[in-house]
Each structure stands twice: as structure tokens, then as C-alpha cells.
UniProtKB/TrEMBL annotation:
This is RNA polymerase sigma-70 factor (ECF subfamily). One of its GO terms (biological process) is DNA-templated transcription initiation. Interacts transiently with the RNA polymerase catalytic core formed by RpoA, RpoB, RpoC and RpoZ (2 alpha, 1 beta, 1 beta' and 1 omega subunit) to form the RNA polymerase holoenzyme that can initiate transcription. Keywords: Sigma factor, Transcription, Transcription regulation. Residues 33-98 form the RNA polymerase sigma-70 region domain. Belongs to the sigma-70 factor family. ECF subfamily. Pfam families: Sigma70_r2 (PF04542), Sigma70_r4_2 (PF08281). It comes from the Bacteria.
Amino acid sequence: MSDIPPDFPSPSLEGSSQKAAVATAPDTATQVFADHRELLFSIVYNMLGSVADTEDVLQETWLPWANRNQAPTVERVENPRAYLVRVAVNRALAHRATVSRRRETYVGPWLPEPLVGPLVDTPITGDAADAAVRAESVSMALLVVLETLTPLERAVFVLHEVFGYAHTEIADILGRSPSAVRQLAHRAREHVQARRPRFQADPRVRQQVTERFLAAALGGDLDALLQLLAPEVTLWSDGGGRTHAGGGLRPVHGRDKVARLLLGIAARFGKALDVVYRSVNGDPSALLFADDTPYAVIVLDLTPDGGQVRGIYSVANPDKLSHVN
């Protein structure tokens, strides 16, 4: 048993206090891992922001789990969920150094790889169910903020704030004292709240603003675009140095600069693009296609009142769109 099992939707993303059945045989071990795979994926993805790196970590988590359950003399794992989460989190932390080195040479702004699923009111069937489970991840805007945390701070924030793990549980996962985990949690929470006060825009409002934004940008309506953009709006465009679908090598700040840049891009490419609305990391967003090929994913961050756009995240790197359809 050497290959990681295929994707299976997890029945729950709740905390680790619920114990799964004890794995006693290879077939059972495979099923137990499959039952927890989406939970592991969501935790690791929120720590790394990359689907490919997350899949690598899951492979590294599966191998010791499979080997342990093949060895007849090894003591059985009484709580597979806790065991798998501990292995996955620590493998993700070890993987973080490689990810950081790779991003040092990345061309232009780096954005998380988008997780695309159906809109909330879209019937969910088949493979779309997996995407819906993965959409339990935090928003694109918050993932960008989490990039500014240390790896340990981010792990603690994700486990505690997103998945509801207690500080004592996190201490066991990380091999740290509960007091050290509480300090990490406090620093991470203060850091995040200082950069992104928590609020949740109504999904219907977010979708309406997204539709108006795309209509104005692709339609060349400067006045409508200026009304939609907040004065302090910032555009992050991740093309990985491989596409002209963005704003260059640095984020673009300010309403006038962002609006004129968007209209310039639309004038060059807009007529060849088709717009499809989907959920991206849990938020109603837009996918742009050129000749049925993914061109960009557009995610908007709104002001607290939901009336204007304060952040635009454009992911156009083809490598990050390979799983989008």
C-alpha cells in the first residue's frame, strides 16, 4: 500500500475531540484516512496556501500512517484523527521552509492558489461536493494576511480560530507547552485583527458587487468603476511572470491608478473573455475564461458596509489555474 487514496469528502470538519474508529487492517486504514482526508487538506491548505504543496504533505502523512497499520507489532492508534492531524501539521511546518525559499524568487505578488467551487445556491453533486468541503477554508483576503505570520503563529491561528482546536490540543500537536501556544495564539490574533477586522459581507451583496465590478471593468465604464472602488483600494495581481493579465510586479494602490489599469487591461483583452461566477475560498467571485481556458480568478474584498471594493485579488498564473474548470 504505497499510493495515497483518492479524494473522499469528509463527513465533518469539527474539532478533534471526536474519535474515529481504530484502524486495525490495511483496508480499514485506507478508509480511515479517506474519511479524514478533506479535514487534513483544509488544515494544511490554510497553512500553506498551495494545492500542490498540500497534496505533497498529504502524501507524506499517508505513508507513515499506511506503514504503521501494516506492521503487526506496532501499537494501534487509538485516535486516528488526532494522529493524522498531528502528522499533517508538523509535515506542513517542515514543508514551509521549502515554500518560503521558492517564493523568494517568485515574480511579482504571490497569492494563494484559489479553491473554486459552486455558488451557495448551486446544487452540489459528485466531485463538486469535494470542492464544497474544501471551501471551508478562510477567505482569500485573510489568507493573504496569514502570509505575514510566522509558521507557528499561522498553525496555531488556523487550528484554533478556523477549526476550533483547544490550546491544550494544539500543544499536543506541536509538542509545545499550553502557555507557549496561548502566547502564539494571542500574537497571531492581534496581528490579524490589526490588519483585517472581522466582518462577513452578505454573500448576495458580494455577488452583486462582483457582477457590477466586472460589468464596469470589462465594459470600460470609468465612472461606474470609480464609484465602486474605495479610495484606498489595492490590486494584487499574481501572474507568476507568465501572463500580462495583471498589474505588474507590485500591488497597485489608489482608486484612480487601479481603475485606469483595469480599463487598460480590459481594452486589450476584455472582448475575448467570458465571465463565470463561482465560489472561491467560500466567497462569491468571478472566473474569466479565454477560449474555454481559465484566464484569471477575480476575488473582491469589500469595505465593512459592503458598498465598495477595497481589495482586488487577481490570480492569473496558469499553474494556479490548472485545476479550474
